[in-house]
Amino acid sequence: MAVVKQIIPVALGERSYDIVLCPGLLATVGDRLRALTTSPKVGVVTDRHVASHYLQSTLRSLRKAGYDPTPIILPPGERTKTLGTIAKVLDVLARHKFERQSLLLALGGGVIGDITGFAAAIYQRGIPFVQVPTTLVAQVDSSVGGKTGVDHRLGKNLIGAFYQPRAVLIDPLTLRTLPRREWIAGLAEVIKYGIIADKEFFAFLEQEMPAILKLADEPVIHVIKRSCEIKADVVAGDEREADRRRILNYGHTIGHALESLGGYRGLIHGEAVGIGLVQEADLACHMGLCAREVVDRIRSLVQRAGLSEQVSRTAFGPIWKAMQHDKKVVGGQVIGVWPVRIGEVTIRPIEQQICAEWFQSTHGRGRKTPSGSRPGKPSIRRKTRVRK
Length: 388
What we know:
Elements: E1 6-10, E2 17-21, H1 29-32, E3 41-47, H2 48-64, E4 68-74, H3 83-95, E5 103-108, H4 110-122, E6 129-133, H5 136-142, E7 147-152, E8 155-162, E9 167-170, H6 180-197, H7 199-213, H8 217-237, H9 252-261, H10 269-286, H11 292-304, H12 316-324, E10 334-341, E11 344-350, H13 352-363
Parallel strand pairs: 2-9, 3-4, 3-5, 5-6, 6-9
Antiparallel strand pairs: 1-2, 7-8, 10-11
């Protein structure tokens, strides 16, 4: 990749920061922190997989810039996102006498970013942190916007805080060591941006998907940059998800439910979101909110990205129950995001009966009606892992 630095501002008043996108940036991360903290102490939170590729070079860069880095290496995967892990991170910070001006650096994917941000938010009532995302999902989505937190056994991201980073430093070269499954899963969040806010970007993805899948330099840089621009614009207008920011949850109502039902062991986040993009579009069509053509284009692009779009082996009852534990529930109502056309979505609640009717018509096998809903307890094959 040609070394071209791109800067995308996230305008949040006194909490504003820049997203810096630059191939090879990781080698200079120490120098880039000088404007962000005067403390020599930097905690580098990462997981074992990322550490094997990038921890030593990051520590060298920090030491060269005069910092005293402390590595905090965690197990990989969604199941690490617990209060128990947060306690372990806080123990390290306390033992090493981190102060309010000390800084945490999140080196990894979305799980590491969420854990690091939450720990930074609550240690000594808030210390600075910087996101250095190494996965596609983190680079285009989770590292931007200040959502931090951990999961609860009843639902994803139920415990957390809004806490903005001081900067997001993106080195797209880290994607070259990303496992293929993680790379493809990240494309679900990319496709989401086209659906919710930019029909031209969606058309670009339709045209360039073969090149994107081959990690071609220019399309990949454009994918990251445009995704960050859309998210930065949405977050700047609604930092705490009171209104428009909720459009970023498209695909996540069903997606989070599927993750939760699998105990965070089957589908990884992007795979679940990919299914959610198609299934929630199909549900929107059932409700009369969008045309069948919209569903077909979304389904086609999701499939061409190498993602599954089918719900596997569950029944309506468990999915609905999991949806009710989602943090987007308001007043007992499940609030969904529904496509109207490519580039435009609407936010409105979904009733259990309507959702059950759709599920029965799409996935049902003619079972008897469960208590509390008219259409019934349809079931489909008992498997949540996506076949590649």
